[in-house]
Amino acid sequence: MKIGTRESRLALIQTEMFTNILGGNHEIVKIRSKGDMDRERPLKEIGGQGLFVNEINRMVLNGDLDCAVHSGKDLPTILNKELEVISVFDWKNYHDVIVFRGDLEGTGRMKIGTSSPRREEQIRKHAKNWDVFGLRGNIDTRLNKLDNGNYDGIVLSEAAMVRMYPSRDYEILDESIFVPAPGQGIIAVIARKDSPNYDDIKITEDPTARKRWDVERRISGIFNMGCSVPNGILYNPETEFLYMDINIRENVISIRIKVRTLQEAEMVARNVKEIMNYGDY
Ligand SMILES: NCc1[nH]cc(CCC(=O)O)c1CC(=O)O
């Protein structure tokens, strides 16, 4: 197969994880996205949902690629009707983590970098001795900025650390406070619904990852969320806990609730949306 992905080191590692499950020989096509080209401006200035994936998905749609491997978190909730997320896997590394500078001393006020409005909001609310600053770039760039002394610590995804820096120290942040972005840590494979490779791709799916994915996607669709919205959603398919951290102007709802089915999760989300007057914004 011709498999497309972003040119970042993380994207290539994730694509290799996919081809290892898939087996066989494949051509990997690296694509530089709009989000990769502009490394300075905050993401919400460059443009909305799908910044890192839309061009790649268009190539899958046109038949230039047989499939594409994405970070689940980067996929917009609305896809072209002819495309489908056929396989999802690796669901467990969903946490946010903090990585501290190696030579850090003392425990006073700390300068913390993050590139996500959700993480910024959660730090402001829950980590009162951390001052938060913007931080752009791919994972290697962000860690370089940390090591160069620009920050005392940076917050990023556990999945990125596990896959790219398995021997570097980090601290896991509690998911009931730092509720992650929907799909965080999950690897998602997209192809055309009528792809001749549909069944081969489907075999790589982890059914537990699929449970997590379906709940988080449904809820993120209900709230019409992109990653520029400071909302967190996590469903743990093993504990059956659903976490939601929804911020709408001055209104905040943070919950942990046990739900057993997609329908129950959807009902919780619709009720939260209703009582927050979400539709008015
Ligand atoms: N926001 C960009 C992005 N998209 C996917 C990952 C990492 C992999 C993942 O969490 O799925 C990251 C970096 C980060 O959140 O620090």
Automatic annotation (TrEMBL):
GO terms for cellular component: cytoplasm. SUPFAM superfamilies: Periplasmic binding protein-like II. Belongs to the HMBS family. GO terms for molecular function: hydroxymethylbilane synthase activity. The keyword Methyltransferase does not apply. InterPro entries: HemC (IPR000860), Porphobilin_deaminase_N (IPR022417). The keyword Lyase does not apply. Pfam families: Porphobil_deam. Residues 1-197 form the Porphobilinogen deaminase N-terminal domain. Its EC number is 2.5.1.61. Keywords: Porphyrin biosynthesis, Transferase. This is Hydroxymethylbilane synthase. GO terms for biological process: heme biosynthetic process.
